[in-house]
Fold this protein.
Amino acid sequence: MKKVAFKTLGCRLNLFETDAIASELSKKDYELVDFSEDADIYIVNTCTVTNQSDKKSKQVLNQVKRNHPSALKIVTGCMATNYKEKLQQSDVVDYVVDNEHKTAIPNLLDAHFKGENGNPDIFEKDVFGYEPADNTFHTRSLIKIQDGCNNFCTFCIIPKVRGRAVSRPFKDVMENIRQVIGFGFKEVVITGVNIGRYKDGDIDFEKLIEKILELPGDFRLRISSMEPDGFTESFFRLFEHPKLTPHLHLCLQSGSEDILLKMRRMYSASLFEEMATTLRERYPGFNLTTDIIVGFPGETEEDFQKTVEMAKRLKFGHIHTFKYSVRKGTRAERMPGHISEKEKTRRSEIIRKISDESKKEYLNSFIGKTETILTEQFTGQGFATGYGEHYIPIIIKTRGLDRNRFYKVKLTALETRNEEPVLVGETIEDV
């Protein structure tokens, strides 16, 4: 039995694809081991959205080469697609598998160990050809409904490494979800590059969510990161359903109208704030998280202060803060007014401080309330940890609980764990 270890960097889409490949390999009698252990095969699923992502991916690849020189090494994901030829010419890895051929990794391994032609490019391209995963690294089941993007934001390299937008057939999405619910998963997370643009025949994103919510079973549904392209009343109404969790990661990027135009974003800052306000008014306590890029070319101090003011007003549950990173071949690379690294660092620290403060304020608002947690892991003391329906981290200070179960929890305090705030509670009942 060959031992295989995975390292996943980047987005939830990569996590879904890793889970699917790992699950398929486990059915083929490969043994899944932790990335820190000795293995026969190391598969690194990379990200290239920023220079820092590239740096982390390269560090992992060099670490594997240094620590496990005789192991079979495969690199895949967005960095593998972006730097395919360069990686193929290096001696760091044995196989470079781009995103279009990622589904072929199990067949590639079979061919390699049979001594056959293992060129990844000979296999069929299929960005949706993943089997439903029953043996994954998570208690939440990630479901890919879409890939690629047609927006072509001036800073973004995703259309190059993920291709143009394409939607997974509706019947395949529904069958995948039915199967993972049958496997025992309690939470389904919808993911893709630009999921709001999902379209298969007359089924758009909102109709897809409605159909998923109609499925029988003891599960809840979570929508992952979305672009704020403008929502209709029917979208806001979706969150009335008890199975749909009151959390949304809505990408802001900047609070300046001028910078959003330069980024070629498909919305205005005022429209974003209107959508955020509507969600909060209709669903008190709704957890809205976001992305913000600081130091975009031409971002003045006035532009930045508009982002600061909006971040303070909207009190996000969390802000993923990114320093603008030059991506070769994008229009932003050629724009005037690039900001110094020192200034980008200063601005990112300001946004991170706002994020920390608003996150603590948001979490504190749940003390004394009840939340339904899905248990995922256990601390050294035997306490269960997981996330509530609002996607808030919780520790249940009750021993003897089961993994992958819903429990109602009375939240009593906010503590710090691994330098991050986490709510603490006691179980009221098993759901």
About this structure: The mean pLDDT is 95. The longest strand covers residues 406-417. The chain has 13 helices and 21 strands. The CA atoms of residues 57 and 371 lie 37 Å apart.
